[in-house]
Specification:
Blueprint lengths: L8 E4 L9 H16 L3 E6 L9 H14 L5 E5 L4 H13 L3 E4 L3 H13 L28 E4 L6 E6 L3 E6 L7 E3 L15 H11 L4 E5 L6 H10 L6 E5 L2 E6 L5 E5 L9 H6 L4 H9 L13 H7 L10 E2 L2 H14 L2 H14 L14 H11 L6 H12 L6 H7 L5 H11 L6 H15 L3 H13 L7 H6 L3 H8 L3
Parallel strand pairs: 1-2, 2-3, 9-10, 11-13
Antiparallel strand pairs: 4-5, 5-8, 6-7, 11-12
GO molecular function: ATP binding; glutamate-tRNA ligase activity; tRNA binding; zinc ion binding
Keywords: Aminoacyl-tRNA synthetase, ATP-binding, Cytoplasm, Ligase, Nucleotide-binding, Protein biosynthesis
Protein name: Glutamate--tRNA ligase
């Protein structure tokens, strides 16, 4: 790993203007992992300056999703709307130093300027009309107009940084116009400083919070040179930047044609918390997300501890990654197989509680813990989520109704006497896997049947399905009376 500035301080700074999906949360996962890998600090900052679109519901999804995934922050959450006095203080300091200036160009004048520039095939940009320069005469200040405040961007030269994902990026200062860093103050306000803008607030936050590494989506690349110039004007060295490629997803339009688009709510993305409700394990989501843009050799499945141990910025991918639901399910299955059975038992209890299902005494907390843990151990290999695991275990919680046609095909007149004989044997058999296996063996020998001829109808009658783990193991985790009663319905 290359050396890093210490102590490492990273941040995740979402805007609560819509629910947070997997593409968004990846921009939290990497800075969290980098901070943990370097014994650093991970900061959560809520960029809620868009008051019309921001909502508490969106904030709640961010906080709930991060808590569920175990992406715990060390400082914060900080809310930009609660820091407005600090931003205005820095604006005033910059005004006093001549780093920013008032601009009285109206929106209509700015639109007309852009139209003229586009007609001349020039890049539309503010032309510096109100920028003070030595020997320059500014236009007369219009009466009763509150100005915007613009940053005096350096003229000539370039902004250069070594992006940890994209490599060297160089932007000419002549491509950057003077950024508006504060909107006009209210007409009835005595203040000259209005509402600070997003790009400016970000700079002040990163400066005040001592951010050493900014790891964020590449939709922010165009903001970076402006933010670097403001930071340097404030006497600060910029952090290390890593701009992550977009997460893409496949969608199908109304004509059945497939398209690859940026992951978004409009293109079918789900809130992070929905994956929790669907029963995915948090470690599985972390594993899958980690591989959407980062790699450690050919390792596909790894623990959270391994991810933190291995993570660095040198192996971030440069190409956009595509979300693949089938791959996510495969990763989830691998994590289910190795998950702690007691953890799964607790999650399955939550799934049944969410369904309003009361567990039978045999499975209730306390005395039933061991049996529920054993059930999870037996069935987890067949599942990708705890919802699916709860579906499997439903036959131990409530009565079953076997598929009529399938039962009729399997429970033939030749097999019915064997099922009845098995039910009788099970009333006195030792109630464990070995005892049930012996009862099955004895019944097969007595009636001259092969195991599938008896096991399939037994599964259908007791479990409501024809496929389960070994029939003796599945039956042993039922109460004896339940098994015997269901077999006697044959």
């Amino acid at each position: 790993m290359t050396s890093v500035r210490t102590p490492v301080r990273t941040r995740f700074a979402p805007s609560p203007t819509g629910f947070i999906h997997l593409g968004n949360i990846r921009s939290a996962l990497y800075p969290w992992a980098f901070a943990r890998a370097n014994q650093g600090v991970f900061i959560l900052r809520i960029e809620d300056t868009d008051e019309e679109r921001s909502s508490q519901a969106a904030v709640d999804v961010i906080l709930d999703g991060m808590q569920w995934l175990g992406l715990n922050h060390d400082e914060g959450p900080f809310y930009q709307m609660q820091r407005m006095d600090r931003y205005k203080q820095v604006v005033q300091e910059m005004l006093d130093k001549g780093l920013i200036y008032p601009c009285y160009m109206s929106s209509a004048e700015l639109d007309a300027l852009r139209e003229r520039q586009m007609a001349a095939k020039e890049k539309p940009r503010y032309d510096g009309t109100w920028r003070p320069e030595a020997g320059k005469t500014l236009p007369p200040v219009p009466a009763g107009v509150k100005p915007v405040l613009r940053f005096k961007n350096p003229q000539g030269g370039s902004v250069v940084w070594e992006d940890k994902v994209k490599g060297r990026i160089e932007i000419s200062n002549d491509e950057l116009d003077d950024l508006v860093i504060a909107r006009p103050a209210a007409a009835d306000s005595d203040s000259f400083v209005g509402t600070p803008t997003y790009n400016f607030c970000v700079v002040v936050d990163d400066m005040d919070m001592g951010i050493t590494h900014v790891i964020r989506g590449d939709d922010h690349v165009n903001n970076t040179p402006r933010q670097i110039n403001i930071l340097r004007a404030l006497g600060q060295e910029p952090p290390v930047y890593a701009h992550l490629p977009t997460v893409m997803t496949e969608t199908v339009d109304e004509h059945g044609e497939k398209h690859v688009s940026k992951m978004s709510k409009r293109h079918g993305a789900k809130a992070v918390t929905q994956y929790r409700d669907e029963g995915y394990l948090a470690d599985a989501i972390v594993n899958y997300l980690a591989r959407l843009g980062w790699s450690h050799g050919d390792d596909e499945i790894f623990s959270r501890a391994q991810f933190i141990e291995w993570f660095n910025l040198d192996h971030l991918g440069r190409s956009a990654s595509q979300f693949d639901e089938a791959k996510l399910r495969w990763v989830a299955q691998q994590h289910m197989k190795t998950a702690d059975d007691a953890l799964l038992a607790g999650l399955v209890r939550e799934q049944f509680a969410r369904r309003g299902v009361t567990l039978p005494a045999l499975l209730q907390a306390g005395e039933g813990d061991a049996r529920l843990i054993a059930l999870c151990a037996l069935y987890k290999d067949r599942c990708a989520t705890t919802v699916e695991l709860a579906d499997w275990l439903a036959m131990y919680v409530a009565d079953v109704t076997p598929p009529a046609e399938e039962l009729a095909a399997q429970l033939t007149e030749a097999v019915k006497p064997a099922v009845a004989a098995l039910a009788e044997r099970l009333t006195t058999a030792t109630w464990d896997k070995a005892g049930i296996a012996q009862a099955l063996k004895d019944t097969l020998g007595e009636h001259g049947l092969k195991m599938p001829q008896l096991a399939i109808p037994v599964r259908l009658l007791v479990c409501g399905r024809s496929q389960t783990p070994s029939v003796d193991a599945a039956l042993a985790l039922f109460e004896r009376d339940v098994v015997v009663q269901r077999l006697r319905r044959a």
